[in-house]
Amino acid sequence: MPTEHDSLGCNNNRRIQSLVQLCQRVAGNHIESISSVGELPFTLVQPILERCSAEQLLRIEDASPVYLWRSLCRRTYSTIMERLEDGTDAVPDSWRTHFYILREAEARRLEEVGSRIRSQRLEADERKKKREVKFTERLPPPKRQRTGWNMPTQPRTLFQKTRSEASKLQKNMYNTRMIPPMLKGKDYRPTSSIASAPLLAQTSYSNRVTVKTITRRPSSATAGSSEPDTLPSKTLNHSPLKPTTSPSSTWKTETRSLFSSSNGALTIPRKDTPKNTQISSSEIVPSPSKSFPVAKKDPMASLFVPKHRAYSQRAG
Amino acid sequence: NSSVEADPEDWVRIISNDGYTFLLRRKVAKMSGTIRASLDETGGFAEAETKTYRSQERGIVVQKMIEYMSFKAHYSTVGPQEEIPVNDIAERLPLEILLELLLAAEYQDSMHVSLILYPVVLMNGFKV
């Protein structure tokens, strides 16, 4: 190293990169421009080639000694190569082909990991979507049932509707009493006074389907076959069924909506139990009995109970 | 006699293999160990008399080497805190001669710090 003459220079000389190093560095930055290393000694060009990727190396490979590929392998796939050096795996004959093997293995592994991550992410996304607010056309289940049972029910299928209507008809047909219609269970007891159907109280203040005094004398027991004409369709409730339950006193049962028009059958106002809307209503059967055990047995009990919510109370 | 010739401010000459002559101060020339040794009269080389060093490189390569040596000579004397702008010289190395320069630089032994580890290189004679 030059210079006994200036001590300062001594220190700085170590800091200044040698021309060789400078050249190596610049060449490393411009590997693309190097077409061949010609006869340059490997030791000289090694630092340059170390910065090459495999493709670039291929181009330059002409006079390179064997160690070139081996060290590239080591550099790129160091962990795998460590195993090699430990002697656990067989030493590959050709480092060059080995390099390609390693590269493919690596690519495959990356692919696997990538797809695993992708699927995990998709799953997470889906889970998140389920929980987020969605736009939907379906009506939400009615708010808490007035009775407080809070049991959301499935929308009633047509079949269910028909069946319940029919059963209602039957019941009413055979079971009409003069008093305000009350909550009846499914059972129907044929009464003699079929004819006295009349009394279904007029419910003038309901918006739902309801009662009409039907003065008919259905001769046939078949429900549902009634003449639609007599049906006081006017009183019928035509208002669109509102799915939401109207709030009202808990004990009040709303009439079931609508059916009547659909099958042209008699619709009897039915005091349903808490479930009111048809959409929300569940099976009539079990519930009514629970909350209104009275109804079945004691018709008089409901005498003073307004069947429907007062008109003014209606939610509309 | 020797004191005169040892003057670092002296001008010395480097001639390239294609006939170009470069004049530079001795202190710059001494940045290269090879040149320094050959110009050093105590070494007994003929060049010492003539203060001329005949390089085996072509002109354009010699020019870049001298440029480097100037850079090095200048920054040898700066304080230890000061940063040496390596990029200044690095960007002045054209790619076209880069590999040739690399080779030449190595030949100029003290331009390559670790030359000592590669005796093979020295003996190789790939130096044109």
Automatic annotation (TrEMBL), chain A:
Q: Which superkingdom?
A: Eukaryota
> What is the protein name for this chain?
RNA polymerase II transcription factor SIII subunit A-domain-containing protein
Region annotated Disordered sits at 210-297
Pfam family of this protein, just one?
A: Elongin_A
Do you know which Gene3D superfamilies this protein is assigned to?
Answer: 6.10.250.3180
Q: Where is the composition biased (Low complexity)?
A: 239-252, 279-291
- Start-end of Polar residues biased regions: 210-238, 256-265
UniProtKB/TrEMBL annotation, chain B:
Name it.
Answer: Elongin-C
Q: Which organism is it from?
A: Lentinula boryana
Q: InterPro entries recorded for this chain?
A: ELC1, SKP1-like, SKP1/BTB/POZ_sf
- UniProt similarity note: Belongs to the SKP1 family.
